[in-house]
Write a structure and sequence with these properties.
Layout: E1 2-4, E2 13-17, H1 28-32, E3 38-41, H2 50-65, H3 68-71, E4 74-79, H4 81-91, E5 97-101, H5 120-145, H6 148-152, H7 167-179, E6 193-198, H8 206-215, E7 219-224, H9 236-249
Protein name: Alpha/beta hydrolase
Domain AB hydrolase-1: 60-241
Keywords: Hydrolase
Length: 250
Amino acid sequence: MNSSMISRGSSSTILWLSGWSMPDTVFDRIRLLLPEYHHLSVDYSEAETPEKMLLQTEIAVENYLRTSALHGPLLIGGWSLGALLALRLAAKGFGDGLVLFAATARFTRSKEEGNRGWQDVYVRKMMTGVVQDRLAVETKFRQLMFTEAEWEAHLGESLPPIGSWATPALIAGLQILRSEEILSQLLNIYCPVLLVHGTEDRICPYGAVSELLAQLPKAKLLPIHACGHVPFLGREERIADELRRWWHEQ
């Protein structure tokens, strides 16, 4: 677990969990705008198996709890795959609140549920493709992250460079996206949840967040209109203000 931008006397801590294939530096801008929080992150870019990736997130929380008196309540912030991992931790009773970007409680869905996720066959093709030509797979995945207007605005250029994850970690992350299912446990997540979701997300469709909003007892949705899969990128000041206001209300 890495720690960064520690603010002495901070009232709360945010543990950041990044999306598939992405380094946690993607959160740097939003963290800079939240200096009153203590920031931690989990680097699972070298995880060799799904089990190790899942274990890393649990160990990070357990390590934090040993020193929680120093840093106050724990928020778990997750994006995409990281949001699924955050929901998994909350279902186990970890965390005082969740901040979830482009979240889903189950990534793979049946053909009939295409408005809530991807069919498993597409994720399996990605796993095969990662072994054959990982650059092509990651490039295509990034193309899906943004709307046409966002690409024209060069928003995609703000992402960290491709290639920060080891190939086994890419496969492990995809295996988690295939297998993790938190839908049946949502009613057991009682902590406050802030959901931030792009209305034109093609990776975790908007139907997935509508499902979360309906089933999480203490969820609030912040829709980002005309936005794809990265609802915080280029909007960090707004997101930081919304997060701060929401958590203060809690």
